[in-house]
């Protein structure tokens, strides 16, 4: 009977330590912040946009808008904080299109693997050559 009680105590302690480790892990991943140069690149890209409908109103330099991983259309790696996805798709039916030119500032997003700028107005301009410079880009949508 004594061994069973020891086993229960040991099991309880092990469960406590595991739950503590899981809590610490979730706290550390929650603190991942976007990379400053990538945030600046996104703001430069936004500067070249005409966003008459406030589609990107969550993007900014103000204190409550500094975390670019929380911006509309931006996704970051939980492990590194690098921007890995930029999804600015707009529906062809809602009339909320962005008017833009593709800024080479996007090249700072070196870890970008998904880029969707579908149904935005680029004024009939050609796809810039720098789009071919994204080494990690796996999905590109410019419809």
UniProtKB/TrEMBL annotation:
Matching InterPro entries: LRR_dom_sf (IPR032675), LRR_N_plant-typ (IPR013210), RLP23-like (IPR046956)
Recorded GO CC terms: membrane
Origin superkingdom: Eukaryota
Gene3D superfamilies from the UniProt entry: Ribonuclease Inhibitor
Heme keyword on record: no
Segment forming the signal sequence: 1-29
Any single Pfam family the record assigns to this protein: LRRNT_2
Membrane topology classification: Single-pass type I membrane protein
UniProt-annotated location(s): Membrane
Leucine-rich repeat-containing N-terminal plant-type domain mapped to chain residues: 37-77
Alphabetized UniProt keyword annotations: Glycoprotein, Leucine-rich repeat, Membrane, Repeat, Signal, Transmembrane, Transmembrane helix
Presence of the UniProt keyword Metal-binding in the record: no
Name this protein carries in UniProt: Leucine-rich repeat-containing N-terminal plant-type domain-containing protein
